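Subgroup meeting minutes
Present: P.N., E.W., G.H.
Scribe: E.W.

1. P.N. recapped why we're keeping a running log of single-chain structure predictions: easier to compare across weeks, and new members can see raw inputs and outputs side by side.
2. G.H. added today's entry (487 aa).
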Amino acid sequence: MDRIEESALGENYRPGRVRMLAIAAAVAGFLFGFDSAVINGAVNAINDQFGLSEGASGLAVASALLGCAFGAYLAGRLADRWGRTRIMFWAAVLFLVSSVGSAFAFALWDFVLWRLVGGIGIGTASVIAPAYISEIAPKGNRGRLGSLQQLAITVGIFAALLSDQVFADTAGGASEVVLGLPAWRWMFLVGVIPSVVYGFIALTLPESPRFLITQGRTEVARSVLGGLVPRTMVDASVREIEDGIQNAASEKGSVRGHRLGLQPIVWVGIILFAFQQFVGINVIFYYSTTLWQAVGFEESDSFLISTMTSVVNVLVTFIAIGLVDRIGRKPLLVTGAAGMFVSLLMVAISFSQATVVDGTPHLPHVWGVVALVFANLFVVAFGSTWGPVVVVLLSESFPNRIRGTALGISFASNWTSNFVVTLTFPVLSASSLSMTYGLYCLVALAATVFAARYVRETKGLSLEEIASRPAGDEAPHEQQTPQTSPS
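Output recorded in log:
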């Protein structure tokens, strides 16, 4: 990798290079989003193919998330040992294998196995990509660049739902055959394309300067920094990173602490990511096609609604990108959680008005419109705040000495919570959709209180400044001039 780094970057600084590298690294988010949503259009067909009960259906959808939790937990340790870009490459390989295996699965057990394999790759990439971006980005626009990961996730969700719709419409249904295979199998096979693209990108990205310096490869790190910052700032950037590493080495590098066995900042990461999932956002992207059919919409209309929701999700991410470095992380989290609470409350009320006709629930026209509107407003509130901002905040909040491990634990919480929500939704929704969304509504209320009380602002601070900040200290509230040194 050293040869690529030196020849590709050297001291050839260009202001837009960091942005391009951040965009390239964020393609991991596309894999994340694609893998998360591709199951949406295939759920009913898979249920029919393998004769699944509601519980088994939840397992089929959620199985990848167990792999994600495992991959996320190991990611920091693997990246600290082998490097960020190498682990990105192997994550792409795992996703490629999973795409092919899932497409040709012949039973529930091997479908779950291949989804687990892909989940390990996705979970790994979900940790490494934002960490990599935070380590190469200037502190003045680190939030915007970090938000590219979430933008890529939303684009991946849109691509998955759109391809699901195309195959289903072409074949006349997800279970129907097109070009020799049922449409639902093509939905998974398409994942080969982004996995190959990301694998190639991972081979061409320069390694993180922080990782290089921790490995004693300072001259290579200097060469990489020569492409990220002006020549006059290279030495200062190297010294700042070295000082941060030395300070971290002088302290105990353990996530263990006096709060139930962990440091308080680690618990903040675990709880933020748990809230991010327990509001039920991924129910929209995993089950929305089934959900809208369950309340009376036709299959073709349900596919279209799901695709349009994913478009909304992409567009509102630009709100976060525009605001995260202007008004800060904490205000976005507080207002976003409050918005989710109101939206979920209205969705719960709407589903409470459903009537059963011939054993199938139907929403009266007015309440169907209300449910659609507020379900999309929920996506707006989440996509413009909690979706991107939690990842940005946590990728920069942990001290250097525990960053890899703490990120791994936090993302494992994210994927484990996602698994619980995804596994339980079919059973809960079969009992009562109104009750299910009422539970998500209460979680959003708790998230509002937690963000207001426990989140510490990181806007405008370098990673080293955040790590050395005393507990309870807040970042300056005034707008700071963007700096050019990556931190």
